[in-house]
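User: Hey, my collaborator sent me this sequence without any context and asked if I could get a structure. I don't really work with proteins. Can you help?
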Amino acid sequence: MFIHRSRITLISWAMLLALLIGGIFGPTNQAQADSILPDMAVTLLSGNSTYASTVYAGNSLIFRVIVKNTGNVPLQVTAHLTVPNGWDVDQDNFSDCPDSLAVRSSCTISWYFTPQVSGQEYLRVYARGYYTTSTGTSNRITQSPAFIFNVKPAKGTTGGSGNTTILNTPTPGSSTTSPSTGVFPNMTVTLFSGDSTYASTVYAGKSLIFRASVKNIGNVPLQVIANLSVPNGWDVDQDKFSDCPDSLDVRSTCTISWYFTPQASGQVYLRVYVRGFYTDSTGASNRITQSPAFIFNVKPAR
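Assistant: No problem. I've predicted the 3D structure and written it out in structure-token form, which is a compact way to encode the shape of the chain:
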């Protein structure tokens, strides 16, 4: 039987092209379709301000939280806010958030209250997005942004509640923690696998290093801790290595590293829960939380 060489060459090129298209586009599209990566953007608003606002004691105001679902799975959104003693809360909150916030959709939660004491207060909102994982279990993500209110004495008075000092709005990253700037804890968290900060392709059976880099961008020292749970069967060589001190200074950065080995092929996302503990203006201990996620596309062992 005789087969012309040009026909063999044509078939070979067609097979090669099919393999390339399958390798480049097929797994990527499948990975994107199968991945569950919950995420949300949380914006605080008082009037037209998203970070700080000057208001008057005795004047009611509306404080809003806008949550946008920026992930790829529906979220059930809740938010919690505690106002200082003496701030008259007309209503706990008003929410137009549905039981299931669709991807790329936004909803708003509003609080109505009246500041009663002049001075500076920051309010922190704890927003949580509940979702169902690929295994059918319930889980959640959390964001905890803060907002600063500079409260002036009631209009027409000279002293309000005896405090005539109007405090300045602190700048994120400021090194001072004096009463004149208030206490404003904040941090950024960046996840790394190799040079990647969002997703990485790795191989089953091949060990890797996964890092969380934490920078203190607030104005108060933080005690940083982080927790990561890997899937069953992922061989963890070491729980973690951390160079984070007991008190991470303002503008300083520290790194927490995990060493483990993926064991099964497929797509997995890992979420890191990072907490920064600090001392507030009353001397009490408090904390802020961030929970970023990272995608691993795990290929079969070579």
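In plain terms: The domain at 37-169 is CATH 2.60.40.10 (Immunoglobulin-like). You can pass these tokens on to your collaborator as they are.
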